[in-house]
Amino acid sequence: MHEIDPLISSYSHETFRPRAPEALLTLRKVASLVKPLMRQRGWRIGTLSEFWPPEKNLLGLNWNKGSKICLRLRYPYDEKKFLPLEEVVDTMLHELCHIVHGPHDEPFHTLWNQLREEYETLTRKGYTGEGFLSEGRTLGGTARIPKHEAQRRARLAAEQRRTLNAGSGQKLGGAPVRRGTDIRRVIADAAQKRATITRGCASGTERSKGIVQETEQSGTKTQAVDLTDEDEEAVMLAYIDLIQEERERYGAGYEPPSSANPV
């Protein structure tokens, strides 16, 4: 899978573990899913790394404001089984917040909520990440498609996704809520997942430096390759526009995310 303007310089996965190629693919997939959110804010990451620490509760780590982000991809008691992709993405969103904020305080959680909402908007509108659009088929031609055509394709995907989701219930935390579901239980479960990720964050702890050193020794690094597919880049930018349109409904005081205004 070729990447467009990689915002992550390299990937590191543990080739001695079972299903190692899937681990590398998962890291790339997670990166592609959050790339629009990173691009809006000018965020870059040195290395996105797999880790499988002995501490069973640990899920993620951001070292030195994005110099390296580590993600648990596998269940702590079975390295052959991978965690659900959505859980890994949520951990990634959490760790991205540490590029801006250190402690898990109110500004941190405000930004995490913002990233979650934007990611939810992307997925709801049909965005599946670079290299995964159109089931791997090219989006056409060698010349860059016009902006209006990219927007048309993004809106078409959004409408198709809306049709497929019709009648599935309201969304909460990226998952459809079925009619008749106890909404209080859904909210409680979402809060529990959030707390689990926060407790599983090693960023800023005494253990963090040791984890980084361990991943440097155990991981195999793969450089990101910048082979630009301008059609896919145009469509991704159109999805970013859709996020902005939805956020602008908050009123004239809305300010789009940027490096100076990550929230």
- Low-confidence sequence ranges: 132-143, 167-174
Q: What is the percent of helical residues?
A: 40-55%
What is the succession of H and E elements? EHEEEEEHHHEEHHEH
As a percent range, the share of strand residues is 5-15%
Q: Tell me about the biggest sheet?
A: 5 strands, mixed
Global mean pLDDT: 80
Q: What best-fitting shape do the alpha-carbon axes yield?
A: globular
Q: If strands are numbered along the chain, what order do they take across the biggest sheet?
A: 3-4-2-1-9
* Tally of helical segments: 7
SS content category: alpha/beta
Q: Could you tell me the number of beta strands?
A: 9
In angstroms, what separates the terminal alpha carbons? 30 Å
Radius of gyration: 18 Å
Attribute tags:
globular; two-stranded antiparallel ribbon; 263 residues; 5-stranded mixed β-sheet; 7 helices
Characterization of this structure:
This protein is of the alpha/beta class. Helices cover 45% and strands 13% of the residues. The protein contains seven helices and nine strands, in the order βαβββββαααββααβα. It is globular, with a radius of gyration of 18 Å. The chain starts with 7 loop residues before the first strand and ends in a 16-residue tail after the last helix. The relative contact order is 0.20.
List the helices and strands and how they pair.
Blueprint: E1 8-13, H1 20-41, E2 45-50, E3 60-63, E4 68-71, E5 74-75, E6 78-82, H2 85-97, H3 106-124, H4 147-165, E7 171-172, E8 175-176, H5 183-199, H6 208-218, E9 220-223, H7 230-247
Parallel strand pairs: 1-2, 2-4
Antiparallel strand pairs: 1-9, 3-4, 5-6, 7-8
Helix pairs in contact: 1-2, 2-3, 4-7
